[in-house]
TrEMBL record:
Gene3D superfamilies listed in its UniProt record: NAD(P)-binding Rossmann-like Domain
InterPro entries tied to this protein: KR_dom, NAD(P)-bd_dom_sf, Sc_DH/Rdtase_CS, SDR_fam
Domain Ketoreductase: from-to ranges: 7-182
Organism for this UniProt entry: Corynebacterium vitaeruminis DSM 20294
Cross-referenced Pfam families: adh_short
Keywords of the record: Oxidoreductase
Name assigned to this protein: Short-chain dehydrogenase/reductase yusR
Lineage, uppermost ranks: Bacteria, Bacillati, Actinomycetota, Actinomycetes, Mycobacteriales
Length: 238
């Protein structure tokens, strides 16, 4: 396909992990992919390798989101992947700043980007894929802040389906289970030993596993909508 004929996908949080793997999978499937995140140097390398575009984006900044939206005329697929967790503290010792970051990034970040591109996605009969987590379904001790954020994403996805049902767009939620990426390293603020212990002696999904599910959902006929996909390794039950 020519560059002008390709459908355009935007992947937030595209500089590593699930976001990077998704960008690569979509590009291999014929999409023109815009990878967006804060680490522009990393994005530029990925974009060069997949024949896409790199754009700097901080989903916690309305100015940053608006600037990105103003630079993109058409959009057929939005993958709201930017997110993450910080800390594993019990509620009685919860770090308010960590909770604020998780809510700003996971919930309000998804809201900002969706609002900014909704009209363009509608005009192009597009698709929104929101990356939540099994943490948005099943709470666990120490996870209250992340649970609250991802429960928020799950609720927002359901309301999008209700409120956007008369628009020619699709809405999908992906709920990954245990995926071995730098997720836990970020959660534990660089403590590699704690991060590695999360995945030790367990089956783990890869970022590419989740990217494959996103690629498949995005490639389905436009009259089909996958509301939710829950994906876990065989040894993880929620």
């Amino acid at each position: 396909m020519s560059e002008t004929a390709k459908k355009i996908a935007l992947v937030t949080g595209g500089s590593s992990g699930i976001g990077e793997a998704t960008a690569r999978a979509l590009a291999a499937d014929g999409w023109h992919v815009i990878v967006a995140a804060r680490r522009l140097d990393r994005l530029e390398k990925i974009a060069e390798e997949i024949g896409g575009e790199a754009r700097e984006l901080d989903v916690t900044s309305q100015e940053s989101v608006d600037k990105l939206a103003a630079s993109i005329d058409h959009l057929h697929l939005l993958v709201n992947n930017a997110g993450g967790a910080k800390g594993l503290d019990p509620i009685e010792k919860a770090n308010i700043a960590d909770w604020e970051w998780m809510y700003e990034t996971n919930v309000l970040g998804t809201l900002r980007v969706t609002q900014a591109f909704l009209d363009k996605l509608t005009a192009d009969e597009g698709h929104i894929i929101n990356i939540s987590s099994v943490a948005g379904i099943q709470p666990y001790a120490g996870g209250a802040g992340y649970n609250a954020a991802k429960f928020g994403v799950t609720a927002m996805n359901k309301v999008m389906r209700i409120e956007f049902v008369d628009r020619p767009i699709r809405i999908t939620e992906i709920n990954p289970g245990r995926v071995k990426t730098d997720f836990s390293l970020i959660r534990f603020k660089g403590d590699a030993a704690k991060a590695d212990a999360v995945y030790a002696d367990k089956l783990n999904l890869s970022a590419e596993d989740i990217a494959e599910s996103i690629r498949w959902v995005a490639g389905l006929p436009a009259h089909m909508n996958i509301d939710r996909m829950v994906i876990t390794p065989r040894d993880q039950v929620i």
